[in-house]
Structure prediction request, 211 residues.
Amino acid sequence: MIREALEIARSIRMRDPARPTVAESILCYAGLHAVLWHRLAHRLWQSGFRGPARCVSHFARFLTGVEIHPGARIGRRLFIDHGMGVVIGETAEIGDDVLIYHGVTLGGLTTKPGKRHPTLADGAIIGAGAQVLGPILIGRNARVGANAVCVDPVPDGVTVVGIPARPPGRAPEQQTTGYGIAPGAPDPVAEQIAALRAEIAALRQHISLRA
Ligand SMILES: CC(C)(COP(=O)(O)OP(=O)(O)OC[C@H]1O[C@@H](n2cnc3c(N)ncnc32)[C@H](O)[C@@H]1OP(=O)(O)O)[C@@H](O)C(=O)NCCC(=O)NCCS
Prediction:
């Protein structure tokens, strides 16, 4: 446990631009605490003590704001930066040297049991608030942008952003406006306004004929 705490603390020092000391990382990084609590919960879960495992996980959530199901499999040097609001589901798998920011969900899309949560390969980075959903593979060193909703696999080294998450820099015809309406697609608000304007014009004409 101490060896793992030191290993994660050193990797936090390398990756966090705030360059915390190893002592700061061990004492003040809730994401590090969450991983250590998870080791205990996971061991209990694997030994068949499911109730105690859930209790440890719940207590850790209370302390850190990070909810990791005890069944989740987590590799070495996971850095959960800031931590608050992270949810990691039961069948999620996380490789080594993964970086997850606050508000991330590694969630499922089905109520059926079995593998239903994502797998993050080594070195993947998941931006703040991103929702990664379903039993998809996020490849080695792939990046999911902040606030993206990712429901498709992401190949090694590829960056995706937006909802649904796609590589940035798409062709202009595929780009959306700031309000999420693709150029050329029907715009229900504009259609309603056009109908109202037509009705006002007809009423004006009716009034002018009577006057
Ligand atoms: C996705 C990300 C990794 C891309 O970084 P990058 O490779 O340096 O990419 P760039 O900043 O050059 O942006 C490339 C394009 O993607 C767009 N983009 C970047 N991040 C985006 C995001 N989260 N959502 C939507 N679009 C995004 C940029 O506007 C740019 O678009 P353009 O080509 O039309 O100008 C990064 O922007 C990101 O979201 N990182 C997460 C960081 C985070 O969560 N920090 C929290 C710290 S507390």
The mean pLDDT is 91. The two ends are 89 Å apart (CA to CA). The chain has two domains: 2-169, 177-211. Residues 82, 101, 127-128, 143, 145-147, 159, 161-162, 168-169 surround coenzyme A (CB under 6 Å).
